[in-house]
Amino acid sequence: MSKILMPKATAVWLIDNTAMTFEQISEFCGLHILEVKGIADGDVAAGIRGADPISNGQVTRAEIEKAEKDENYNMVAISFDHAPVQSTKKKKRKGPRYTPLSRRQDRPDAIAWLVRNHPEIADSQISKLIGTTKPTIKSIRDRTHWKSATITPTDPVSLGLCSQMDLDDVVKIAAEKKAKKDAKMAPKDQGDALKPVEPEQIVEAEEKAEPTLASLFKPSEPNA
């Protein structure tokens, strides 16, 4: 892949203005994944103004939109001879989705919404969907989170923490898992519990339960 101009400044702009993953930004800018994370957290390249790669002719807006829709897609950079160069590497995102620093304060609201409206979604799925940790999810479930008093359950899509497509996929997978689990737990054979009582059993029970008049006044037989 051809080297781009001002990679750190470009990374700053991509982090602030797109929904691209760390891996995509790292691949496009030629920076280490930890360096990109440091830039996003403000630990690296502090004070550097973001450089728009669209306006300086390094990538098209269509490429950025394509990368935002597919987290496994690596953008095609425009080389100086105007020949696009495509990276052949495609990496699957591992671990939770990265959430920009400016949106992290909204995650408790999104977690509360997911826990309330979709209890079938596992904590591991929530963690990956909006880029949070299992202890944080647990504290919100237990209402021990330090922001519990001010949390307002809010749709993560409206907060910009995930796409509607990602949310729908997670809900669908969770629903399918729950359906399979419920099917396994359902009793396959309820045995004799639901079998109708045979008429012979009813008659026999009535004869044993209700003594006849003859049996009451029948003299007892002398002992031999």
Helix content: 40-55%
Radius of gyration (CA) equals 33 Å
Report the portion of residues in β strands.
under 5%
User: Pairing-aware structural class of the strands and helices?
Assistant: mainly alpha
Shape: elongated
Mean model confidence by pLDDT: 77
What's the end-to-end separation, in Å? Answer: 114 Å
Number of helices: 10
Give me the strand/helix succession.
Answer: HHHHEEHHHHHH
Describe the structure.
There is one protein chain. By secondary structure, this protein is an all-alpha fold. The protein has two domains: 7-85, no CATH class; 101-185, no CATH class. It has helices at 7-17, 22-29, 33-41, 61-69, 107-117, 123-130, 134-141, 164-185, 199-209, 213-217; strands at residues 77-78, 84-85. A two-stranded antiparallel ribbon has the order 1-2. Helix 1 (7-17) runs antiparallel to helix 2, helix 2 (22-29) crosses helix 3 (33-41) and helix 5 (107-117) packs across helix 7. The radius of gyration is 33 Å and the shape is elongated. Residues 81-90 have low confidence and may be disordered.
Blueprint of the fold:
Layout: H1 7-17, H2 22-29, H3 33-41, H4 61-69, E1 77-78, E2 84-85, H5 107-117, H6 123-130, H7 134-141, H8 164-185, H9 199-209, H10 213-217
Helix pairs in contact: 1-2, 2-3, 5-7
